[in-house]
Amino acid sequence: MHTELCDKLGIDLPIFAFTHCRDVVAAVSQAGGFGVLGAVGFTPEQLEIECKWIDEHVGDKPYGVDIVIPGKYEGMGEIDPEKLEEQLRALIPEQHREFASKLLADHGVPEMPADERHHELLGWTAATATPQVEVALQHDKVRLIANALGTPPEDVIQKIHDAGRLVSALCGRPEQALKHKQAGIDIIIAQGYEGGGHTGEIGSVVLWPQVIKAVAPTPVLAAGGIGSGDQIAAALAMGAQGVWTGSLWLTVREAESPPAQMDSYLGASSRDTVRSRSYTGKPCRMLRNEWTDAWEGAESPGYLGMPLQGMVTMDAIARTHRYADKAQSVAFNPVGQVVGMMNEVRTVREVIYKLSEEYIEATERIQQLAP
Ligand SMILES: Cc1cc2nc3c(=O)[nH]c(=O)nc-3n(C[C@H](O)[C@H](O)[C@H](O)COP(=O)(O)O)c2cc1C
Fold it and tell me: Quick check: CB of 243 below 6 Å from ligand 1?
């Protein structure tokens, strides 16, 4: 399954793995794929530590860093992170904080210890993500910067290109893909409805060929719902240059998901996810639970936009992660519909091996059908 993009990035397999866990990034790249570290939850100082660790554990393999600069968000235009945080905090109604806080208290989720609290506004804006890009570019093995939720600003694209790296961006519609292409994005990631995290309304099998056709010859990675090698074969058969996966890596042995969260994922079926705005303000696929239901319920104050809703729920994300065993019914469990295929804990190497094996079997099946 070697494609042109593999040569461009110096990798063996066009399997891209989005993850928040540095161990998974290093293991995927070491296994011949391309690990991408999700930076949204890190301060620039923390990101520096993560990248340094990956550099030391990835051998001579490349990896990527993913940032989030949405195309539209509250406070756009302000580039000083501290001023922006202050400005945004003033826009949050107390009612939303009280609702979130009561929901956690009613479910017996303990408060965070005072010394573990952190900023409410992490990398969800140009102001907070640009310093992350600067950190990432200091690391030679970072060969790709990916952006979620919009076309990154011109100066960010320029900065990445000036440093000799590639830029990719996610999209959920062919129109967004064209906008990315026009802005000079090198690799377009077409993510279908079934994917984990923020996702649009078009299913993968309908979206991928439309995006591939719309932006040709720009390389496209197929994302959303991929959990097996035959799905990779389907994506490459449609003309994708590789696949971009996320959910699959939440249940590998190297992942740092707390055991209770791992159990939630392993026990879930493909019907157990919902696209909900309750954690970040934009539709994000996650396991449905009492938290997602409550924000849809009669007493809900409604959702705030991005990044305000995320500022309200940052504390809940930290608390439900820290006390995962007590918080299963209200935890933030972002994952795609492919969760129904994630039924056992395997190592990264085992997952990559299985994907490759299934890919070969699928291509052999197709060859047997050839006239
Ligand atoms: C837990 C989780 C968190 C995610 N966070 C981000 C993110 O911060 N930035 C991003 O570009 N994509 C994010 N995504 C989306 C992935 O990059 C990827 O497009 C998606 O997982 C592909 O669909 P799949 O989950 O079916 O493999 C996230 C996905 C998951 C499962």
Answer: no
> Which protein residue's CA is at the shortest distance from atom 21 of ligand 1?
246
> Rounded CA gap, 22 and 139, in Å?
14
Please give the pLDDT value at position 208.
98
CATH of the structural domain 4-369, one choice from 3.40.50.970, 3.40.50.720, 3.20.20.70, 2.30.42.10: 3.20.20.70
Q: How far is the CA of 244 from the centre of ligand 1 (A)?
A: 9
> Could you tell me which of 271, 149, 250 has the C-alpha nearest to residue 199?
149
Backbone phi, psi, residue 36, to 5°? -130, 125
Residue pLDDT, tens place only, 33-80: 999 999 998 999 999 999 999 999 999 999 999 999 988 888 888 888
Contact call for residues 60 and 69 (beta carbons, < 8 A): no
List CB contacts of 288: < 8 A, sequence separation 6 or more. 272, 273, 274, 276
| Cβ of residue 36 lying under 6 Å from some atom of ligand 1 | no
| CA angle 156–158–160, rounded 5-degree value | 70
- Could you tell me if the CB of 148 is within 6 A of ligand 1? yes
For the chain, the domains span 4-369
- How many other C-beta atoms lie within 10 A of the C-beta of residue 119? 12
Atom 13 in ligand 1: which residue has the minimum CA distance? 197
Task: Give the bridge partners for 63, in sequence order.
Answer: 142
What are the phi and psi torsion angles at 132 (to 5°)?
A: -65, -40
Please state, in angstroms and rounded to a whole number, the distance separating the CA atoms of residues 176 and 218. Answer: 14
pTM over 0.85: yes
- Cα–Cα distance between 337 and 159 in angstroms, integer? 35
Q: What is the dihedral of CA 361, 7, 234, 207, to 10 degrees?
A: 160
Q: Is 244 in the pocket of ligand 1 (CB under 6 A)?
A: yes
- Give the tens place of pLDDT for each residue, 74-109: 888 888 888 888 888 999 999 999 999 999 999 999
Q: Check pocket membership of 333 for ligand 1, CB cut-off 6 A.
A: no
Q: Which helix (H) or strand (E) covers residue 68, if one does?
A: strand 63-68
Token pair of 240 as six digits: 């994708």
Protein residue with its CA nearest to atom 20 in ligand 1? 246
SS3 83: helix
Tell me the CA distances in angstroms from 31 to 53, 162, 292, one per residue in order: 17, 29, 36
